[in-house]
Amino acid sequence: MSDTHASNGHNGNGAKASLRVQWAGIVVTILLATGALTIQWGVVTAKLQQVEKRLDELIVEARGLRTEYQAIERRVSYLEGRLNGSGGREK
């Protein structure tokens, strides 16, 4: 049987070396995939932090607009009260 393997160009050491090359290829692929996922996770995390920061800014802006709107409502209410009050006095 060893003659058959020798005539085919295969020997015991060649099969082991081939298996090592296959496993090395698998390990390198896993390492590259893990590295790519790590980098992608970092990019996604950075983008989410930017979105969170922008949402915080929008919340602050919305609170400011709500305060301004309430101030305008008070002024309008005051003016309406004066108009309604002065109309009643004239009659």
Task: Describe the fold and architecture.
With about 90 residues, this protein is mainly α. It has helices spanning about 1-5, 10-90. The longest helix has about 80 residues, at about 10-90. It is rod-shaped. The termini are far apart. The mean pLDDT is about 85.
Set down the secondary structure blueprint:
Layout: H1 2-7, H2 12-90
Summarize it.
93% of the residues lie in helices and 0% in strands. It has 91 residues and is an all-alpha fold.
State the share of residues found in helices, binned by percent: over 70%
Shape: rod-shaped
Backbone structural class: mainly alpha
Per DSSP, the total helix count is 2
> Can you write the helix and strand succession as a string?
HH
Round the mean pLDDT to the nearest integer and report it. Answer: 85
Unreliable stretches covering 5 or more consecutive residues: none
For the largest beta-sheet, the strand count, sense and barrel status come to: none
Termini separation: 125 Å
Number of DSSP strands? 0
Please tell me how large the radius of gyration is. 39 Å
> Roughly what fraction of the amino acids lie in strands?
under 5%
Which terms summarize this structure?
91 residues, 93% helix, 0% strand
